[in-house]
């Protein structure tokens, strides 16, 4: 069974458990480990464990995905949300680039040149050519960042 890396990629508001974008966890079989020996948020553990994504990752059906949930606070006036990236450890770099690309596209749109590079990346991904996929999606991310300015 593949090791799955878990890391916050976006924190909206404030995390009451004080998670940061540098915190990382690993799921190994049925064990969740904190890589920094820090605290693990019980809400994160409970939410990650009920999301079918973990099972899809462990079965090999997917190699990455995002998990997010609101309501990490009793103060309903303030939104607190942590978005986690989950990925097979051997495809971590690729998953991080895809995650950043998706977040930026959501905020700024997807220019044509970046979209064409992304489509090339998807073709390589479908062929199982992950090194080429990483190169193409990284180029798409660079193009997207240039377009944003």
Can you put this structure into words, describing what you see?
It is a single chain. The protein is an alpha+beta fold and 149 residues long. It has 2 domains: 4-91, no CATH class; 109-148, no CATH class. It is 46% helix and 21% strand. The chain has a 5-stranded antiparallel beta sheet, sandwiched between helices.
Outline of the structure:
By secondary structure, this protein is of the alpha+beta class.
Low-confidence runs:
none
Strand order of the largest sheet: 3-2-1-5-4
Helical fraction: 40-55%
Distance between the termini: 41 Å
- Which structural category fits the helices and strands? alpha+beta
Beta-strand content? 15-25%
The 3D shape can be described as globular
Gyration radius from CA atoms, angstroms: 16 Å
Number of helices: 5
SSE sequence, one letter per element = EEEHHEEHHH
Q: Main beta sheet: strand number and arrangement?
A: 5 strands, antiparallel
Tally of DSSP β-strands: 5
Give the count of structural domains: 2
Overall pLDDT, averaged? Answer: 85
